[in-house]
C-alpha cells in the first residue's frame, strides 16, 4: 500500500512517552505497544476499570457505522486518526460491501505507518492510501488525501476516538469546522468521543493528572459540547448516543455490561 507523509521522512518511534494509538492498542489486547503505554493504561484502569470496554465499544461502532455507510452508497472514506491496524479494519469492512471503495487513512505515529505498510491490503477494484500527518494540520491531510479521493463527490470522514486528544477548544473546533467545510452534499461526518459525564469529578481530575504527568492530555467533553461538533449537519438515527446504542447488533454482542457503559458518545451526520 502506498504511503505519504508530505516529505518522505520517517522519524524514529518515541518509546519514552505513551502514544494514544499504542495505549488504545493495549486496551484492545494488541501487542503493538510498549511498556510506557501499558504503564499509563494500567494507571488509568485503576481509576476506571471500564476503559477496555470503551475501546471495544468504540471499535465496534466503527465497524457498524462503516458497514452502514457503505450500504448507503458511500464509496469514499477518509479516516483521520486511524490508530494501529486491527482486523477487520475500516477498508476491509467498506470493501467487503463495495469492492470499489476508496479509503485514505491518516495518523501521525510512525508505528502506525510501519504496520500500515505491512498489513493493509485493499481490493484491486478500490484504492487504499495512508497519509502520515497530524490531524491538527488538517489542510495537509486534505492535500494528501485529494490524491486518492475526489472531494467533489460524497465521502465519509471519520474522527474516531480522536477529538478527546485535541485539548485546545480552538484547535478542536477548527479541525471539525474545516472537515465540515470540505464535505460535499451527501457526505457524512462520523465521530466518537469519550466523556466524563458518567464519572465523579474527583476521579476525573485525578485521572487527568496522571495522564498529564506522562505527557498524555485528554479533553473529556460533555454530551452537549460534543453535539455542537455536528452543528450544520443532520444527525442520522439514532442521533448522538453511547457507542453500544448506535444500531446495536441483534445478538447483543455490543450491549451494556451490567452497570458499566462505554462512556463514549458517537454519531453519524449527513450534509444535505
TrEMBL record:
This is Methyltransferase. Gene3D superfamilies: Vaccinia Virus protein VP39. InterPro entries: SAM-dependent_MTases_sf (IPR029063), SAM_dep_MeTrfase_SAV2177_type (IPR006764). It comes from Streptomyces smaragdinus.
Amino acid at each position: 500500500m502506498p504511503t505519504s507523509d508530505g516529505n518522505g521522512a520517517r522519524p524514529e518511534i518515541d518509546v519514552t512517552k505513551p502514544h494514544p494509538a499504542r495505549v488504545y492498542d493495549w486496551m484492545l489486547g494488541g501487542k503493538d505497544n510498549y511498556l510506557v503505554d501499558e504503564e499509563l493504561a494500567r494507571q488509568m484502569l485503576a481509576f476506571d476499570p471500564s476503559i477496555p470496554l470503551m475501546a471495544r465499544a468504540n471499535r465496534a461502532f466503527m465497524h457498524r457505522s462503516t458497514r452502514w455507510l457503505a450500504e448507503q452508497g458511500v464509496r469514499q472514506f477518509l479516516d483521520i486518526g486511524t490508530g494501529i491496524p486491527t482486523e477487520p479494519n475500516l477498508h476491509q469492512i467498506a470493501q467487503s460491501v463495495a469492492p470499489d471503495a476508496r479509503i485514505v487513512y491518516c495518523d501521525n505515529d510512525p508505528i502506525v505507518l510501519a504496520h500500515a505498510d505491512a498489513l493493509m491490503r485493499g481490493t484491486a477494484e478500490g484504492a487504499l492510501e495512508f497519509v502520515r500527518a497530524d490531524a491538527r494540520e488538517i489542510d495537509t491531510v486534505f492535500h494528501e488525501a485529494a490524491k486518492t479521493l475526489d472531494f467533489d463527490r460524497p465521502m465519509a470522514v471519520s474522527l474516531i476516538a480522536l477529538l478527546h486528544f485535541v485539548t485546545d477548544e480552538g484547535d478542536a473546533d477548527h479541525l471539525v469546522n474545516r472537515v465540515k467545510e470540505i464535505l460535499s452534499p451527501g457526505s457524512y461526518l462520523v465521530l466518537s468521543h469519550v466523556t466524563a459525564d458518567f464519572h465523579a469529578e474527583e476521579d476525573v481530575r485525578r485521572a487527568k493528572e496522571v495522564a498529564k504527568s506522562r505527557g498524555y492530555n485528554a479533553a473529556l467533553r460533555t454530551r452537549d459540547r460534543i453535539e455542537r461538533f455536528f452543528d450544520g449537519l443532520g444527525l442520522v438515527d439514532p442521533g448522538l448516543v453511547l457507542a453500544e446504542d448506535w444500531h446495536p447488533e441483534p445478538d447483543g454482542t455490543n450491549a451494556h455490561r451490567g452497570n458499566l457503559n462505554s462512556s463514549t458518545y458517537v454519531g453519524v451526520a449527513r450534509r444535505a
